[in-house]
Each structure stands twice: as structure tokens, then as C-alpha cells.
Amino acid sequence: MGTHEQKSPYVILGCGYVGTRLAQSLLRDGHFVRACARRVALLEPLQRLGADIHYLDASRPRQFISALRALPQPAPVVVYSIPGVPELPAGEAVRRAANAALQANARAFIYLGTTGVYGFDQTDNERWVDEDTPVDLHDPEMTSRLTDEAVLATVKMAGLRTIVLRLSAIYGPPLWPGQSGRGVRQRLRRGDYRLWDGGHYYFSRIHVDDLVAIIRAAALRAPAGAVYVVGDDHPCPQAEYARWLASHLGLPEPPTASSLSPEAPRQYIRGRRIRNERMKRELGIKLLYPSYREGELQIDAAEAGLAAPPSAPGEAPAAAAEQTPGRDGPPPPTTLPAGPRPLAPGDLGEQLGLPEIGAVARELAPGERTETSWVHLVLSGHVEAQWQGQLTPVPSLSLVPPGVELYNPGPDRALLLVFHAAVR
């Protein structure tokens, strides 16, 4: 990440699930983070990580001005994640927040909105939507969101760099150890998830860690006034996702329900498929979890304590960046052997004509088990870990500590990177 992004303080207005996951990522990379919410007791774990916790009641005058006072330099990035303030007229809360950000000379004001502004159409739920698709001006449940966006367009004219992210459904891992993942799995476990009208409606979703990366990339690269729709690469019918996840978790298949049932309030299904090309292209994003399968496997690992929130893409955590090589020897050559080459047995450094780096690649054949004597990095393939008496899927690019048994259920070989004892 660039120098400015490393130094910019962040102010998160409405620090709930997404805001907390964003704060975890930022704090780990050395940012100043001010997390603002009404229920500040829920933010105490963030405070222990170093966040500045600030009480915020969005309905009260001058609360946003107070939240943006006494910040370190340079100009802050403000992330607005307050879904609605019933005590105020539509658009008033975001107007106050944006004007406070303008007074604070904010570098960016990022509004977390919703793809719900495209309305509902239960006769054409397979349609693709993108930033050029007209919003639905006649959906009463989206009036406040559309008003918020209109207010931001006005404040942008006064010089504030505003960015709107229209989000699809968010899911992801637990925020803290001992909690469970969020999204459909949470509702499946509670037993209150339903497949509307047989589950044929298409939905898009986004893993929270991909969303965190998108927010940080938007702060860096999005032009003033930009609007992006945010979803993964695999919109799919509701039934496909829910039935796969129920089977994966060993839970009963969710029941179906009618969205037009006379015994219950009508359900307005805002099903659609998000086309995310502009967001990925302009923000330079490559999704970590392009479909629910990769995302849910990461949540499995997080619930088992095997995965941590990622740093920003392309940016090493501060602790890792400060490490120095621990092996004596001649300095590496100034040029590397040209051309790509397949991985082979032996130390990776030696394969490139360099000193040993203490890492070797190995394959895990289908059906093979191995116990980790050293730290392993799963590069590719389907790998499961024997963890607390049960097998838990390990997603790619996850580190596995020593003393864990790994298993490849197949059908393909898995590729691992082993950090062996030659490093001291």
C-alpha cells in the first residue's frame, strides 16, 4: 500500500460487524483508528487492540463534529456505516456526517450503502445490475438510502471526495475467538432460514474480508463521486448456496416458504446478480473469496482458530516487515535466474541459486495424511486439519502450526510450503 494509506487515520462511524473487521485489519497494519458507536461496550476488544473508542449518537447535534476532532495527521478517511437514524429526516444524519468530514478536510468519505436501491422484481430476478443500472425511485423501503446518496452528491460539489459502495449481502467469520460466523450459516444454525418460493431467486454476496480490502482500496484509488456495486464473482440461486452450506455443516436442509403467504407479511425479494467488473478494474481488486465455497471454508478455519484477519492485499503485516533474515551467509545475487520453473524438491532458495531460505515445497497426495513438525503454508488443493477432535477444512494461503495432522481428501494433489528447521 502507498505511504498515504499507511499514515491516514480512519474514523469509522457506526462500528458494527463490518467496521470492527475493518478496524482489526487497519490496527494490525499500524493505522490510527477511531471507532464510533452508541454501544461502546461492544468495542472494548478493539480498544484493547489500540483503537480509540468514541461514543456516537447520530441523532444528536454536533456528534459528528466531535467524532472528527483531535485526529492525527494527515487527513482522515471517514467510513460511514450507519444504516438509518429514525429520529431524523431522511438524509439528515449523512448530511451532518459529510459536512463534519468536509470541515475536517477528510481525504475520503466512504458511504456503505446497499444494492437494495435497485428495487425488487420477482418476475425478473436473474437480471444483472451494475453501476449504470437505473435505481428504483418507487421502492419506499429504499427512500432513505437514495436520499443519503443524493445528499452525498451535493456535498461532493462542495469539495468532499465521496465514494458510495452499494453492498450485496455480507457474510464472514467471527470477530473474536469463541464466536461463530455470520450470515446464512448463523441463521441455518438457529433454524430460522427459509428458501423463498423454492429458492430460485438469485442473490449476490460479499465476504467481509474482501469488503475490507475494497474499502481500503477505495480510500486509495476511487475518484471523487465514484459509485461501485460490491459482490463476489458467483451470484447464484438462494437454494444452491443454502443447500450446499447446510450439507457442509451437517444441518437439515432449510424449508421453503411463500413470499406471498396470506398468513405473514409479504416478503419483497430483492434478488439480483451483481456485475462487479468496474469495481475490480478501477480499484485493482482480486477477490480472496470469489464464491461462497472459498468464503465458507475460510469461516470454518476461523471458527476453529486456524485463520486470522488478512492485511491489506499486497501489504505485509508490520511485524513481518520488520523481520530480518536469520541465516548467515553470503548476500544474495543481484539478479535471479531468468524464466519460470516448476517447484522441485529441496530448499526454494537453492532452486534459484540463492542461499537457503528455510522453506521447501511438498505435495500431499489424495488420501495422504501428514503431521506437521514445522509451520506449513497451504498453497493449493483441498486440505483438512485434525483440530480439536474433528477435521476442519483449511483454505488456501492459510498457515498451519506444528503438531497438527493434515489430510488431503482429494481428488487432486495439494501443494504445501514447509518452513523447516534449517532457519534459525
CA radius of gyration = 24 Å
Q: Tell me the CATH topology of the largest domain.
A: Rossmann fold
Low-confidence stretches: 1-5, 313-339
| Separation, N- and C-terminal Cα atoms | 30 Å
Q: What proportion of the residues form beta strands (DSSP E)? A: 15-25%
Strands in their spatial order, largest beta sheet: 3-2-1-4-5-7-12
Q: Counting H and I runs of at least 4 residues, what is the number of helices?
A: 13
Question: Helix amount, in percent?
Answer: 25-40%
| Number of self-contained structural domains | 2
Main pleated sheet: 7 strands, parallel
> What would you give as the CATH superfamily of the largest domain?
NAD(P)-binding Rossmann-like Domain
CATH class group of the largest domain: Alpha Beta
Q: What CATH architecture label of the largest domain applies?
A: 3-Layer(aba) Sandwich
Helix-and-strand structural type: alpha/beta
Mean pLDDT: 83
The number of strands is: 23
Question: Which geometry do the CA atoms define?
Answer: globular
